[in-house]
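INTERNAL TRANSFER SHEET
From: sequence group
To: structure group
Subject: MFS transporter

Please process the attached sequence and return the structure record in the designated field. Keep the field labels unchanged so the import script can parse them.
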Amino acid sequence: MTQAESVETRYSWIIAITAVTMLALAAGAPLTVVIGLVPISETLGGGRALPSAATSLAYLGTGVGGVMCGLLAARFGQRLVAAFGGCAILAGLGLASLGQGWSLLAGLGLGVGLFGNGALFAPMVAYVSMWFDRRRGTALALVSSGQYIAGFVWPFVFERAIAAFGWQATMLAYGAFAAGIVVTLALLVLRPAPMPVGSAAMRVVPGQRVLGMAPNTALALLATASFLCCVPMAMPAAHLVAFCGDLGIAASRGAAMLSVLLLSAFVARQFWGWLSDRIGGLWTVLAGSCAQVAGMLGFLATQDEAGLFFVAAAYGLGFGGIIPAYVLTVRELFPAIEASWRVPALLFLSLSGMAFGAWLAGAIYDAVGFYAAAWWAGIAFNIVQLALVGFLIQRQRAVSRP
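Return from structure group:
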């Protein structure tokens, strides 16, 4: 593809950098619950299942909201939808900070999830993908790294702020900070995405079969695979600080461990993005999923602090590239005109898997009193996902034969 046939320009990278900044701020909102899991559960009572459920609702709301807001973005533009999302994060964290069980669930599920990250994550990923056609995998890896940047930056801040001011004041202050920056960037930088040009515009047309199947069937199988791999993906990220506390490791060290995990995932995601531009989305999903299984086994193999720091870093290196590889697969297989709803639909299942995994680990812990059983359950989901991805790759190879 020549430069004249490409939609990529210097402004494409300005859009990508702006998007990852906004997503890093939006992704920090649910981390207030992850880092404050123990003090929140002590304030509200009822064990860790309630705040874990709030985290799950944030993931689930982000998925549902992504589909809804993706359609709204196609109609009204990503600029207005993203600005609305920034305001919703402030409203959600403000509601959650009231200190009631219902307000925590509603604030995280509706404000932070459905209308906040729902307006920012999936629609923004689809939006950025429209600005690239030569280095789309690299750009998607960068933009979808917002949650990892958040995971590296905010746990230290939140752990100290919660210790000094309490979890409620921390939520409210962060909501105001994040909303101010997100809304400003949305209004100043975002603009309508370019339409595909040259050969990219004709590569995939609406209605044609995908992997030898009806398009919606292919998307359903791909989305199911993303759900299955995201169940274990969410478990360590949502429960690592609490897991460390059970082992006698200080909360500050647990927060540092979570930051190491997510920083490692951020660095690895850039490599996986580069690789996916060369081997394709599905093969990248398969390789990353195998690495994720190995990482989950690592959490079962060690419980000392030094060992867990190593396992957290290795786990991040493994799973970091899976989600953008799924998005790249959708953009490879389906028409660009359908990206505004197919990408959010895929990410809805991905985030539903995150929601279920975060809740499931908390529920298993409340039932048996330790996290090893949750790690084994996550591995089982991952193995089923590997079988499904292998089937899709086999279909891809079959239809590509002359």
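Handover comment: The domain at 3-400 is CATH 1.20.1250.20 (Growth Hormone; Chain: A;). DSSP finds 15 helices and no strands in the chain.
Transfer complete.
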